[in-house]
Amino acid sequence: MNYLVKLFLAFVLTSCSNLPVGGCPDGEIEWIHAVKIKDVKYEHHFPEPHDMVELNIVQGDEIGKVGYKMADDACSNYKMKNGDATYLDEGTPIYSIKDTPTSLAVLANDQVFVVEQNTKAKTVGEYYPIKDLVKKIHIESTLDGRRLRTFPDASTKVFLDEWLALSLHDREQLAKDNKDDGESIFLEIELKNGITFRETYWRDNKTFHVGAVGTERLAETIEKEYSLIHK
Questions:
Q1: How does pLDDT run across 152-187, given as a tens digit for each residue?
Q2: Residue 7's pLDDT is what?
Q3: 37-56: per-residue pLDDT in tens?
Q4: Which of 76, 66, 107, 118 is nearest to 195 (CA)?
Q5: Over the chain, what HEC string results?
């Protein structure tokens, strides 16, 4: 075997040894910063540059650890399991947050992760157990996330009374029915401890990202506050 052939084979073998076992990851995957534990998937919401909210949270008890880091290892069609995280290192502790329901948010690596999927929840209030925890509701710009208007207390009360009572529907089915088409509004929920998360609302169909369809009273409240942005 001549020198050039040996060199070629060595190059091929070296290249193959660098490929991930099983062919995964199967491309450059931009995962959302997420973690799953106790059948609930959470996401970390990076604060908007315009937000000046200061977190006032206290770490609670450890409720688990990251068992598998998906980034640079999992395939694009991988389904998250309990103990999985997209970017958190394996062994990272996951904590509860004092005075905050664990089904709403957890703490890991000094970052807050807010619920993004909870198949056991039947209503918005079960999905987002935030009764008596909300400080303010804001309308945000869909362009850069700036706060455009803050609901007054009366509108906040109506919004929460109506919204938390809504039943949840299958998100995929709502999407198939085109319930998430048309113009949308970004609603930011700010809790008393500084935790914030965004909920998208589609005006034409009164549909929320969480999988709920709003009442007339709720829609009227949102539209009233939206109409006052530029006044």
A1: 999 999 999 999 999 999 999 999 999 999 999 999
A2: 40
A3: 999 999 998 776 666 678 99
A4: 107
A5: CCHHHHHHHHHHHHHHHCCCHHHCCCCCCCCCCEEEECCEEEEECCCCCCCCCCCCCCEEEEEEECCEECCCCCCCCCCCCCCEECCCCCCCEEEEECCECCCCEEEECCEEEEEEECCCCCEHHHHCCCCCCEEEEEEECCCCCCEEEECCHHHHHHHHHHHCCCECCCHHHHHHCCCCCCCEEEEEEEECCCCEEEEEEECCCCEECCCCECCHHHHHHHHHHHHCCCC
Tokens of 213: 């369809």
Torsion sign across C-alpha atoms 21, 24, 28, 29: negative
Please tell me the total number of residues recorded for the chain in this structure.
231
